[in-house]
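JOB MANIFEST
job_type = single_chain_structure
chain_count = 1
residues = 346
[input]
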Amino acid sequence: MENLDVTVLRALRDWRTAGRQALLVTVVRTWGSSPRPIGSIMALCEDGAVMGSVSGGCIEDDLIARYAHPGGADALPRSGPPQFTKYGITADEAHRFGLPCGGTLELLLEFDPDGAALSELVRGLDSGRLMHRRVRLADGRVRLEPADKPTELVLTDTELVNTFGPEYRMLIIGAGQMSEYLATMALFCGFAVTVCDPRDEYRSSWSVPGVRVVASMPDDTVAEMQPDARTCVVALTHDPKLDDLALLQALDTPAFYIGAIGSRRNNAARHQRLIEHMGQTEASLKHLRGPIGIYIGSKTPPEIAVSVMAEVLAVKNGAPLPRDLDVAYVKDQQGQTAAGSACLLP
C-alpha cells in the first residue's frame, strides 16, 4: 500500500495534467485535539472526488460542498492565491464538524496547483528522494528542493514548507507465519515491505501479495537496500546464521528501527555472541532492539505481530516507550517471558 501523501499527490497530479481544476488542502495549524496532524494533505477535484483527509470526514464534506458545488454564499473560488480557513473556532462549530472537544484546525487551500511541479515532485518521490515543497503565499508559486532529513511543516508570513518523502520501508528477515502477519500490517500502514529468506521451504509458501520476496542472504539484502532514516529492519528467524550478520550490517546504517524477535534469554545470548565473536560492545549495540514488541501479553503469532508493529510505529512517530524511559519490563512469575514480543521460546 502506497504512502498516503504520495497517493494524494499522484491523484492531484493526474487531475491537473488532465486539465481539471483541483484544490490541495494542507493542515497548517491545530489547537487542542485534532483528528489529523499538522502537514496532513488532501486533494479535491472539481467533480467532488477526494483523495486523503484532514479530519474524520465532516470537514471534507464541507469543502466538497463549497468547492465542487459553487454558487452558495460560502463558496470557494476555483483560482487565485492560497487562502487560509479555520474550522472549530466555536464549540458549536467543533461539534458540527466532528472535532474533538476544544479542537480547532487551520487549513491552507491551494487552487489549481501547477501540474508540472506536481509531476516533478512525484518523480522525485518515486526515485526515493526526500523533497521540500515551498509554496509562496502571495501567489501560490511552488519551488521544489531536495531535503536532507524529514522535518516538520514550517509556516512563515511568506511561505509554507512541507516535506514529503518516499515510502517508509520495512525489511523482514524470515518468511515464516509471523512475518506474513507483520508484513500485512506494515502494508496497511503504508510501508513498502521486503521479505528476505534464502530458505526455499519458507519462501515457497509465502502468500501475502504486494511484498517483495528475495532469496539472497539477509546481510547482502541489507547492503543492497541501503537503509535510510525511513527504513526499519526486523529479524524474525531465530536463526543466528541469518539474523546476526544482517543486524550488524543494519546497525551501520541510519535505519530508524533495528530489532530481533526472541526471549530475554535469547536476546542476551545474541548480545554475547556479537560481543565475543563480532567485536561489538554494549555501546555499539545500543540501537539493537530486543526482545521486540510492546508488552500486551501476546502469545500467538498475530498478536505478537501486533505488538511488534505497534513498537515500530511508536519509534517512527517519536512516541516514548516504557523501555526507552527505563521503566522495568513486565515479567511473568518465572521471569522468562519477553517484555515486548511475549515470545515463549527459550
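[summary]
Confidence is low (pLDDT under 50) at residues 326-346.
The two ends are 35 Å apart (CA to CA).
exit_status = 0
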